[in-house]
Design goal:
CATH class of the largest domain: Alpha Beta
Helix content: 25-40%
Family: Belongs to the peptidase M17 family.
GO molecular function: aminopeptidase activity
Shape: elongated
Structural class: alpha/beta
CATH topology of the largest domain: Aminopeptidase
Low-confidence stretches: none
Keywords: Aminopeptidase, Hydrolase, Manganese, Protease
Number of helices: 12
Pfam families: Peptidase_M17
Protein name: Leucyl aminopeptidase
CATH superfamily of the largest domain: Zn peptidases
CATH architecture of the largest domain: 3-Layer(aba) Sandwich
Mean pLDDT: 97
Length: about 475
């Protein structure tokens, strides 16, 4: 996907996209663009409205933005245009950027256009979106120099599109080995180191919780470790650690799921968010050191599967009583968190996971649950998410919830067994393995990673977390 800046529409032939801020239905001054004049009674820039006209062989699509618009709404409007109006696109497409646009609004509009090329029908015979033609270049018409914002927007969209596919493709395609190879390929392409720990080495390294979850599947688990250091790195770089849950399919194990299993290909969306964030961080060459771990495994059922009431040992050396094999995500995260702290000791630590139905029951599909032992970081994550439409809201980590994970036979148990406070008890379980790391945050994205919306007929990926993690790290 390429872009090029043009100074005028002279000699241009094609479709012109013109965003318009709302004026008012009774406004006496018409909307004007070049020689085109549209009376307010016909179009006045109302949010989500549009007006298509033709002049001298060119198509002009006016896009209403409303009076005030946030990043997510603007991105969605342009994604909708690219997704639903592609039949109006000729070989050449030009996007006009108003002088009033900020750099963030340019990012939202351009990234939205490219996100609109995504089609869930990966295995369908279909015609490619015009933007995906190898010869296509989006012409940017602007009197301001937005070149950096445009380049960044394309990179944001590329990383999110990759993440869409990782989550939406079926589990017989997206296996632990596939994710490991994806990470290695991206590392080679974008310049970060990747180490893969397979089953035998994981056993030798005492990654017991990770091994327990993956041993019921014929698909070998893969413990993916990525290290990014920017080129020409300065000393004393801030160091961020990321951990993402990479359960490529979750049957529930022997506590087999009785509903909703068809959607469990999305149980690696936290891992996909971390993979996508590493893609974007390296592509943007952010001046921060990042170490990311994605424990990838399939929680399946066979005669090797771990059992309810088993006691296993984690990488930290602590014992875990297995109350529910469907509470497996926190097990692989526990080993990921412990491994990251022991071997890399990052200054900041964030884990991301589609962890609990409890978070969905609390927040629905509007925001993710945020847990943190650091109020400053919690607020920064919230503000970052709010600025791009990836909302977070904090829940408590009070000590009174420790009882939910206390075991009589082991150091800790993996499930409270209670029908209440599930997201909190899961977070308390993870907190146990952070060894009081002073800057840890946990994002439970179960309700926002895989949703219903206007861009497909079935549930599909949102890439929640890719932009959020990257932008948070960028601001450090």
């Amino acid at each position: 996907m390429k872009t090029t800046v043009i100074n005028s529409l002279e000699n241009f032939s094609g479709t012109v996209l013109i965003p318009v801020f709302e004026t008012g239905i009774k406004n006496l001054i018409p909307i004007k663009f070049g020689e085109i004049s549209i009376p307010s009674s016909v179009f006045y820039g109302k949010k989500d409205s549009s007006y298509l006209t033709e002049q001298d062989g060119n198509l002009y699509l006016f896009i209403g933005l409303g009076k005030i618009i946030d990043f997510k709404a603007l991105q969605t409007i342009f994604r909708r245009i690219a997704f639903k109006e592609k039949d109006t696109f000729t070989h050449d497409v030009s996007l006009f950027l108003p002088e009033a646009f900020t750099e963030e609004q340019v990012e939202a509009a351009v990234s939205g256009l490219f996100l609109g090329t995504y089609n869930l029908g990966h295995y369908k015979t279909k015609e490619a979106h015009p933007f995906l033609n190898p010869d296509f270049e989006l012409k940017i018409l602007s009197s301001n120099n937005f070149s950096e914002s445009i380049t960044k927007a394309v990179k944001i969209a590329n990383a999110q599109l990759e993440t869409f596919a990782l989550v939406d493709l079926p589990p017989n395609k997206i296996t632990p080995k596939y994710l490991a190879n994806w990470a290695k390929d991206k590392g080679n392409e974008l310049g970060f180191d990747v180490k893969i720990i397979g089953l035998e080495e994981a056993i030798q390294q005492n990654l017991g919780a990770f091994v327990a979850v993956g041993k019921g599947s014929e698909k070998e688990p893969q413990f993916v470790i990525m290290n990014y250091v920017p080129k020409n790195a300065e000393k004393n770089l801030k160091h961020v650690g990321l951990v993402g849950k990479g359960i490529t399919f979750d049957t529930g194990g022997l506590n087999i799921k009785t509903a909703g299993m068809v959607h469990m290909k999305c149980d690696m969306a936290g891992g996909a968010a971390v993979l996508g964030a590493m893609h974007l961080i390296a592509d943007l060459q952010l001046p921060v050191k990042v170490t990311a771990i994605v424990p990838c495994a399939e929680n399946a059922v066979d005669n090797q599967a771990f059992l309810p009431s088993d006691v296993i040992y984690s990488y930290s050396g602590n014992s875990i009583e297995i109350i529910d094999t469907d509470a497996e995500g926190r097990l692989v995260l526990a080993d990921g968190i412990s491994y990251l702290i022991k071997n890399y000791n990052p200054e900041y630590l964030i884990d991301v996971a589609t962890l609990t139905g409890s978070s969905v029951a609390t927040f629905g599909y509007e925001c993710a649950a945020l847990f943190s032992n650091n109020e400053t970081i919690s607020k920064d994550l919230q503000q970052t998410g709010e600025s791009i439409g990836e909302r977070l809201w904090p829940l408590p980590l009070w000590d009174c919830y420790k009882n939910d994970i206390e075991s009589e036979i082991a150091d800790v148990k993996n499930f409270s067994g209670k029908p209440v406070a599930g997201a909190i008890s899961a977070a308390k379980f993870l907190e146990f393995f952070t060894k009081e790391h002073p800057a840890w945050s946990h994002l439970d994205i179960a309700g926002v990673a895989f949703i219903d919306d206007e861009f497909a007929k079935t549930k599909h990926a949102t890439a929640f977390g890719v932009h959020l993690l990257t932008k948070f790290i960028e601001k450090l």
